[in-house]
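Human: I'm a chemist; would you kindly supply sequence and structure tokens for a protein?

Assistant:
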Amino acid sequence: MTRRWQWTLALGLGLISVDYVDGGTPTLARRGPERQPLRVAAKRTPASRLVQPKQVAQTEELPPLEPPPADANLEQPIPQHRLESPPIAPEQPEQVPATAHRGVFRLEPPDKLLEIDAADLKPGVVYLHYSEKLDRQVWSFLQTSGDFWHAFGPGTTMSIDHFDLQMTEEEALDALKKIDPRFAFQVTSSAGAKVFLRLGTDNTWKLVRTTSVAAIFDLETHQRWEKQWDRFMPVVHTCGDTWEFRDGGFQAPHWGPWMRPN
């Protein structure tokens, strides 16, 4: 008769059963609840950080190229109009103003300049000519020697009888009436009254609508001259005889403005 013994031991690791049969080897067996595997909650990744798979653009398959027809002319000439370059317009000569030439010009009222031949020049008359010293066109008196006297600067005042206008007194008066009828009446109603022109900073002459005297401001020497009786007299100041034209008037160097052209 075989006997069997079974013990159950409570240990820290759980219940241990011992099974022993006569003549045999005792066996140990663990009893109790089985351990469940640990479950770790998966961490969710935000949708904004998920890597989206790249979308590959689908390319349309082009139809296969068809060979040209057997009778096609592959060596067609290029049209002539595509070979020729467009015509280039010829360069136009630069328009040079009259004052840029080195000729001599006379004034034709009101502001026209006419070039005059050397044989027609008249001494004692005001002409526009080229000054080598100033490298520009200036107005000056022509002397009997053929030289020009003074280089007129702004503020210079001259009566119209100093210009080679080539018009009669009646024609000059008619031209003045068209410009300023009231001033023309003053000239004709006053005995010995003259019409004066004044040179501006732009080297053009403007009508002086008041009585005045002939005066010169020389650009080369910066001296001033006024006509007294039949001759021009120098105009001086306490520090010398040189002047500057500034703000429409004459002033001594380093002085404030105190005199304007008459």
About this structure: The two ends are 165 Å apart (CA to CA).
